[in-house]
Amino acid sequence: MSLVYSYSYSYYYLKSMLKPLVTIIVFLMVACAQDIYSLSDNTIFDGKKTVRVYNGMNDGILVYLHCRSKDNDLGQHVLAFAEFQKWSFNDNLFGTTLFWCTMNASNVHASFEVYRAKTEEYKCDTQCDRNLKKDGGYFFNQFYGYWEKRLSWHIPKTPSF
């Protein structure tokens, strides 16, 4: 009798655990699918981020900017003074979202991280602005309201004739 009771108890215990297990698996599948479509406007999670990279170099210096992530290539953009490239996305479930850019401006070449979820967690909530200037790259801290210089380079003033 005890063997039947044990089998019956195990069956009902496993059956009662099946629904929560399936729920967790479905949630994880949806979260992974959300990461694949992270650049779309229709996501199921809150917390959308928008990165804007400005050309803050005057004197007619063009910035050739090419940004990407592991899953998304945003293509090369040519930015005149005060123009910007922007894109929106949601951080992935694991907090490993990373975008980086390569920049060419007046014979200066640089490659840099423009957004890393772990770094930006306490610096920008929804709007992550970057400004590329002649002396380096500046990142706006949305929570404290100031520009932080994170990148350094030197682009000389273009001679006027």
How would you sum up this structure, described in words?
InterPro entries: Self-incomp_S1. It is found in: Secreted. This is S-protein homolog. The chain crosses the membrane at residues 20-39. By secondary structure, the chain is of the alpha+beta class. The protein has a domain at 48-152: Immunoglobulin-like, CATH 2.60.40.10. Helix content is 24%, strand content 41%. It is built from two helices and nine strands. The protein has helices at 2-36, 117-120; strands at residues 48-55, 63-69, 73-79, 84-90, 98-105, 108-116, 127-133, 136-141, 146-152. It has a five-stranded mixed beta sheet with strand order 4-1-7-8-9, with no helix packed on it. Strands 3-2-5-6 form a four-stranded antiparallel beta sheet. Strand 7 and strand 8 (136-141) form a beta hairpin. The longest helix is centred in the N-terminal third of the chain and has 35 residues, at 2-36. The chain starts with a helix and ends in a 9-residue tail after the last strand.
Strands of the widest sheet, in order across it, are 4-1-7-8-9
Beta-strand share of residues: 35-45%
Structural class: alpha+beta
Oligomer: single chain
Keywords: Membrane, Secreted, Self-incompatibility, Signal, Transmembrane, Transmembrane helix
Transmembrane segments: 20-39
Subcellular location: Secreted
Family: Belongs to the plant self-incompatibility (S1) protein family.
List the helices and strands and how they pair.
Layout: H1 2-36, E1 48-55, E2 63-69, E3 73-79, E4 84-90, E5 98-105, E6 108-116, H2 117-120, E7 127-133, E8 136-141, E9 146-152
